Amino acid sequence: MLYGDLQFFDILIFAAIAGFIIYRLRSVLGKRTGFQKQAPEQKTTIKENKQPTTEIPSLLENQLKLENVYKNVNHFNHKEFLEGAKKAFEIIITSFNNGDKKTLKGLVSNDVYSAFEKAIDQNENDPTSQFYSLVIDSIEDAKVENNIISISINFISEQMINEDEGKIIKNKDTWTFEKEVNSSSPIWILTQT
Fold first, then answer.
1. What percent of the chain has pLDDT over 90?
2. Which residues of 110-135 are buried (b: 16+ CB within 10 A; e: fewer)?
3. Which residues pair with 14 in a beta bridge?
4. Nearest-angstrom CA–CA distance, 6 and 177
């Protein structure tokens, strides 16, 4: 009877982890209920789309490359983008560490998913690793080409192993997120790591 109780406890733990990941995804990606008002049709020409409707805000020195996006994309907000990128980084790394391929599938490109899937299948992920700290060091590159916004970010993260503050691993990663200029989706896809 004791063994059956342990299986039930394991199921509860996995359900709690899945619930947390779904909660984090919804807070990062938002949700559509199907009852949102339709945006009024805008009669704009291609020339008008090239002109930003918002002024370029004051950017930190390590964010100056984002001016390229502001010059070519209407209603871009770098603060929202960077906050979302940090949340996406945490969700993607946590999903990878936990071997959660289903969550990864919707957040990364096919090439990146294949690399993560291969690493998970070869047990190169570490479920005992958890975030200790995460900062955006700088914007490596930001461009708009062929109707695609592409932003590369340098992240510096620290991850703790087995909840032991004496075992903290520091990593520097450059990730590239992409999204179509006219996309109304809040989701940016990770295309390079």
1. 45
2. eebbeebbeebeeeebeeebeeeebe
3. none
4. 41
CATH node for 63-192: 3.10.450.240
pTM of the model: 0.68
pLDDT at 52: 47
3-state secondary structure the chain: CHHHHHHHHHHHHHHHHHHHHHHHHHHHHCCCCCCCCCCCCCCCCHHHHHCCCCCCCCCCHHHHHHHHHHHHCCCCCHHHHHHHHHHHHHHHHHHHHCCCHHHHHCCECHHHHHHHHHHHHCCCCCCCEEEEEEEEEEEEEEEEECCEEEEEEEEEEEEEECCEEEEEEEEEEEEEEEEECCCCCCCCEEEEC
The pLDDT tens digits of the residues spanning 31-42 come to 555 555 555 555
CB 108 within 8 A of CB 89: no
pLDDT at 53 over 70: no
Angle between helices 78-97 and 2-29 (to 10 degrees): 160
Burial class (CB in 10 A: 0-12, 13-18, 19+), 52: middle
Q: Any idea where the domains of the chain sit in the sequence?
A: 63-192
